[in-house]
Amino acid sequence: MLLKIAAALNADQLRIVREHLHSADAPWVDGRVTAGYQGAPVKQNQQIDEHSPFAHQLGDLVLGALERHPTFISAVLPNRVYPPMFNRYAGGMHFGSHIDGALRLIPGSGAKLRTDVSATLFLNAPEDYDGGELQIEDTYGEQTIKLPAGDLVVYPSSSRHRVTPVTRGVRLASFFWVQSLVRDDAQRALLFELDRAVQTLNVAQADAAARLQLTGCYHNLLRMWSEI
Ligand code: NI
User: Fold this and answer.
1) Residue 224 CA to ligand 1 centre (angstroms)
2) Separation of 62 CA from ligand 1 center, angstroms?
3) What is the whole-number distance in angstroms between the Cα of residue 117 and the centre of ligand 1?
4) What is the whole-number distance in angstroms between the Cα of residue 162 and the centre of ligand 1?
5) Phi first, then psi: what are they for 124, rounded to 5°?
6) Domain ranges within the chain, ordered by starting residue
7) Three-state SS for 221?
8) What dotted CATH number matches 185-225?
9) Please, are residues 8 and 65 in contact by the beta-carbon 8 Å criterion?
10) Where do runs of H (alpha helix) occur along the chain?
């Protein structure tokens, strides 16, 4: 399931993140430092040194916002989240076709994370740059994603994807991976649909007994499919 989530960061949070990324002491490094053997030859961008306190501070801000975002929680069902990273594309930089590595070591913790869901959070306005589209191949063909600042896209990490060259201006984004409680994308999508339907029925104060049954189905499916 490919899902766009509007306003994952609010205007204040965006301002803080952008101020930091534009500051002279932002520790930008070559993006290939975190690429695997498949990604490295096709990756051409810059990212904030993920081991820096700078990255931790900004990453915590993003995580704090997402932890409180009901659509993100319902759609992704996060178990473990890789600390968000930050990247920059300018002057023709791009990231060719690749599939994200299946397993990652969470820096500093030694814990492993299976990448079930990939996420890109757009940090500046689409009018600020030309190109820089995230193209994702999914079941229904190729999706071209270029979202307003603060919006997030989540998609299965099994998808082939690329970022087209940025030919004018600068593209700033945050990106990270999630190990979901529910590994299978189709099961996760079904739970999301069910949750949304229950929420709609709750708002409408529909028949209470039927809502209870549906809520029970949701939790019993989640119990059946989740791994912790
Ligand atoms: Ni990728």
Assistant:
1) 30
2) 19
3) 11
4) 7
5) -135, 165
6) 3-180, 185-225
7) helix
8) 4.10.860.20
9) yes
10) 11-22, 53-67, 70-76, 185-203, 208-225
**Residue 83 to residues 4, 62, 157, 158: CA-CA distances in angstroms?**
20, 9, 16, 20
Which DSSP helix (H) or strand (E) runs through 4? strand 3-5
Q: Round to whole Å and give the CA distance between 118 and 175.
A: 8
What's the gap in Å between 209 CA and the centre of ligand 1?
44
Question: For the CA atoms of 160, 42, 135, 11, what is the dihedral angle to 10 degrees?
Answer: 120
Whether residue 7 is predicted with pLDDT greater than 90 in this model: the reply is yes
CA of 100 to the centre of ligand 1 (A): 5
* 39 CA from centroid of ligand 1 (Å): 8
Amino acid at 24: A
CB-based neighbours (< 5 A) of ligand 1, an ion: 100
Give the DSSP H/E element, type plus range, for residue 104: strand 103-105
Report how far ligand 1's centroid is from the alpha carbon of 114 (Å). 14
What is the 3-class SS of 134-189, one letter each residue? EEEEECCEEEEECCCCCCEEEEECCCCEEECCEEEEEEEEEEEEEEECCCCHHHHH
**Cα 41 from chain centre:** 23
Q: Ligand 1 centre from 214 Cα, in Å?
A: 36
CA of 193 to the centre of ligand 1 (A): 26
Q: Could you report the per-residue pLDDT of 46-98, keeping only the tens digit for each?
A: 999 999 999 999 999 999 999 999 999 999 999 999 999 999 999 999 999 99
Report the CATH architecture of 3-180: Sandwich (2.60)
- What pTM did the predictor assign? 0.94
